[in-house]
Amino acid sequence: IYLLFYITKDTSITNAYKEDLKSRGTKANMGLSDSLEVFFIYDQAPNVTGSNRLEESRILIYPNLSSLWSHYGAFPQNTKFVLRMFNAAHPYTLPKNYTLTVYSGDTAWDEGHGLDMESYKDEGAPNWLESATSTQWATLGAVDKTNNSIIVGSQHFTLGTEDLEIDITSWIQ
């Protein structure tokens, strides 16, 4: 038996440098983009030192789990839940041999209306700084890896072209 649930809102947020490699796209919103983007770039911008050398992008997804409860009620004892996201083929370089970790957050956020994933011209919440208009994240970038965020699961990517498939049964339960 497959019990499907859908993502009702999604976006990518980033602290990446803009094309000028001087200013960051921390206010960029990509809520209406047709794909989601996660990356980690180190030491791309010239003349930048220390922790400012790191650029990241995160995916935020909001699964409509309430539809599961209202439609199915109690689940059979051995029900397994899997988060599955598909790699979108593209002509850009892919990272290899990395591990992606999925965290659960408890902060409400807006999806936003941005599309631009290259120049970061579409600004608005959510973004690296805000979960909603005039509402800052407790931790920049939405995830507090040290204290408040629960690890849902992780997956190692050998080639970088693999789909994400993580057993989230214990998190759902």
List the helices and strands and how they pair.
Layout: E1 7-14, E2 39-42, E3 54-63, H1 66-72, E4 82-85, E5 98-104, E6 130-132, E7 135-136, E8 150-157, E9 164-167, H2 169-172
Antiparallel strand pairs: 1-3, 2-3, 4-9, 5-8, 6-7
**SS content category:** mainly beta
Rg from Cα: 17 Å
Counting DSSP H or I runs of 4 or more residues, the number of helices is 2
**What spatial order of strands do you see in the largest sheet?**
1-3-2
What percent of the residues sit in helical stretches (DSSP H or I)?
Answer: under 10%
What is the terminal separation in angstroms? 17 Å
Describe the largest sheet.
3 strands, antiparallel
Percent strand equals 25-35%
Based on CA inertia axes, which overall geometry fits? globular
| Overall pLDDT score | 87
Low-confidence stretches: none
Number of strands: 9
Order of helices and strands: EEEHEEEEEEH
Please give a structural write-up.
6% of the residues lie in helices and 29% in strands. With 173 residues, the chain is mostly beta strands. The longest helix has 7 residues, at 66-72. The chain is globular. 14% of the residues are buried.
